[in-house]
Design goal:
Blueprint (H helix, E strand, L loop, with lengths): L1 H4 L6 E2 L3 H10 L5 E3 L2 E3 L2 H25 L4 E5 L6 E5 L2 E4 L6 E4 L5 E6 L2 H6 L5 E5 L12
Parallel strand pairs: 1-9, 4-9
Antiparallel strand pairs: 2-3, 5-8, 6-7
Helix pairs in contact: 2-3
């Protein structure tokens, strides 16, 4: 592949907010947003994973393969590649100007990334396509 011959090893990381919204609507699950971020409960996170790691990921892999590349679909859960920490955000109330904590449920951001799986794939004419789904880090325990 030309990219690898020039020492460029692409990794595709995708999202899927609109497709998640469409599937939730189709299933009659109402989305709630706080400060522009989707609040994700247990039922919603199952749909999010299905859409991101299933539907969208496999579609992108298919497009790359049809274009002559060789892609492999993965998520942060595969090989414990990514562990996430719960997102914490605050929002300022418009009327009172008081800052409040926002609970977004199962929304996280990468905290630990183990590149072992990617290192095994890169340089072998495979393009990893990563769905942004990861297990949560265990919550810190207070003593």
């Amino acid at each position: 592949m030309l990219l690898e011959q020039t020492a460029i090893n692409p990794v595709v990381v995708h999202g899927g907010g609109p497709q998640i919204g469409q599937m939730l609507d189709k299933l009659g699950i109402k989305s709630e947003f706080k400060d522009g971020l989707r609040v994700t409960d247990q039922k919603t996170v199952e749909i999010v994973e299905m859409v991101l790691a299933g539907s969208i990921n496999k579609q992108i892999v298919g497009f790359i393969n049809e274009a002559g590349g060789r892609a492999i679909g993965l998520s942060g859960k595969d090989g414990n590649m990514v562990k996430a920490k719960k997102v914490t955000r605050t929002m300022r109330d418009k009327d009172s100007n008081i800052e409040q904590a926002i609970d977004l449920g199962y929304v996280g951001e990468p905290e630990i990334v183990d590149t072992t799986v990617l290192e095994q794939i890169l340089g072998r004419e495979l393009i990893p396509v990563l769905a942004p789904v990861a297990p949560a880090l265990p919550a810190a325990r207070s003593t």
